[in-house]
Request: fold
Amino acid sequence: MSNTPVIGVLALQGDVREHLIALAAADAVARPVRRPEELAEVDGLVIPGGESTTISKLAHLFGVMEPLRARVRDGMPVYGTCAGMIMLADKILDPRSGQETVGGIDMIVRRNAFGRQNESFEAALDVKGIPGDPVEGVFIRAPWVESVGAGTEVLAEHDGHIVAVRQGNALATSFHPELTGDHRVHSLFVDMVRAHRTPE
Reply:
């Protein structure tokens, strides 16, 4: 069997194309996922940035929310950026009415914690597990992690706030590595997916 993992990008909203490009650059076969049958064909999934409430509603509309929850519970590797981080949180502070998450990471997330769109910024981050130079983090209306459970590893902080975490096969960042041309975070995720795949 080929060791090239097939990784989906949840293509309901957000910067799907940029993630597909970054995953391909990190030696994965990348494809958009909107429906349960497409989800069933991938080894791992990226949940991109966008608007977490909208993503949650569209996931229900396309019938993909429950299958996605089931696969994450079963250990499918998943990576969420920005709104995707919110989607992977077990708990949101001040969720919008009707807002649901996929869950998978024992953390409490604060929405729009770094401010609104006009307060977007970039910052150099030391990310655990990423060798070499700091990772350039692009923050756009970004959340941060208020607190994590015992099983969740903190990978990066900015100004005393947690901005990257990992729990088992689930990875999440407040920032958007797909916008920088630096594919090391995606490579880390591709390695996670590769390690999770069992030889036939």
